[in-house]
Amino acid sequence: MKNFKAIIILSLILVSSVVTYAQDPEFTQFYAAPVYTNPAMAGTGSCNGGGRVVLNYRNQWPSLPGTFITSSASYDQHFDNIGGGVSLLLLDDRAGEGLLRSQTVSAGYSFQLDVNRRFTMRFGIEGQYGQRSIDWQRLRFQDQIDESKGFVNPTAEPYVSDGVGFANFSTGILGYTERFYGGVAVHNLIEPNQSFFGNPDAIVPRRYTAHSGLVIPLDGRKIPESTISPNVLFMLQNKFTQMNIGFYYNKGPLVTGLWFRQTFGEYGNSDALMGLVGFRKDRFKFGYSFDLTVSDARSAAPSSHEISTGIEWCAKKPNRKYRKLSCPDF
Question: Which of 116, 128, 178, 298 has its C-alpha lying 20 to 30 A from 161's C-alpha?
Fold first, then answer.
């Protein structure tokens, strides 16, 4: 039964790699993966432009065989002498119990522009190299089956390359004040081809992301301990369109949040209700989010789980030109 499930999963993966467009992985805690969401967020850590390291882990629909697991690690920091921030991002995405794997490494730069005393903009650019691979040794085909011994025969299926490499680029823009922030990002600018079979149509389409939010103090203090932050994220990639809408509530070191994800167009449906709980202690943070499926798929894929952790450190020498982004980081 396990082998049968693996065959079904691989068949779907291989078909999608040949005749359809690929889609980027996504995080529910999109602000906990800042440079993945928008390259212009490089160097926007909260401690005077110091460094920031963030780890993200997402297990999507673990109740299904061959679940989707996405992990990322990023570093970013602001430097006055180059007028902005730099970033490094590593991403690992596995599907079909690890049979299909995508890995990328990205490096970016964001330029800070002080429009006036209150409004700041950042312009980001990111270069990426990625590789997509299949573990062919774990594949099982029908002609390998012996009625009495199982999968023991050699297969006549054609063998193709273990992996395919590709270059990619992304860009973004971010604008913010003390209480408002918003940005737009475009990923996969050159729409790279990821086909194992040389299919020129098997590209990764551009991903357009728009995100915005407010930080509203609730206690009247100059440096508020209690805030609420309504947020919205809109994403478009080929025929897939979605909107996340919700809010963060912050009370001292504790953070909670609630969102709703809706998809539109050809694949439109009410997708998931998402809850978050997190905390921050000094320069360390931890967040856990739970996606509760509300679409017709909930019987087979009722939930997804996501964890983020991060640590920041202050710059040894104050970055006098740095302007803080008051944005949630979960």
Answer: 128
CA distances, 173 to each of 219, 290, 304 (Å): 31, 29, 30
DSSP string, 48-107: TT-EEEEEEEEEE-TTSSS-EEEEEEEEEEEEGGGTEEEEEEEEEEEETTTTEEEEEEEE
SS3 45: coil
Task: Kindly report the three-state secondary structure assignment for every residue of 126-149.
Answer: EEEEEEEEECHHHCCCHHHEECCC
User: Counting Cβ atoms within 10 Å, is residue 250 exposed (0-12), middle (13-18) or buried (19+)?
Assistant: buried
Query: Which pLDDT score, from 0 to 100, does residue 247 have?
Result: 97
| Residues 277, 296: Cα–Cα separation, whole Å | 26
Closest CA to 52 of 248, 326, 315: 315
Instruction: Compute the residue count for the chain.
Output: 330
Whether 250 and 240 have beta carbons less than 8 Å apart is answered as: no
Q: How confident is the model at residue 46 (pLDDT cuts 50, 70, 90)?
A: confident
8-state DSSP, 179:
S
3 state SS of 186: strand
The chain-wide mean pLDDT, for the chain, equals: 88
Instruction: Check: CB of residue 77 under 8 Å from CB of residue 50.
Output: yes
Q: Which two tokens stand for residue 224?
A: 């508020």
Token output for 244: 């996340």
Cα gap 308→73, rounded to integer Å: 10
Q: Which tens digit of pLDDT belongs to each residue from 262-307?
A: 998 776 788 999 999 999 988 999 999 999 999 888 888 899 999 9
Q: Which helix (H) or strand (E) holds 35?
A: helix 34-37
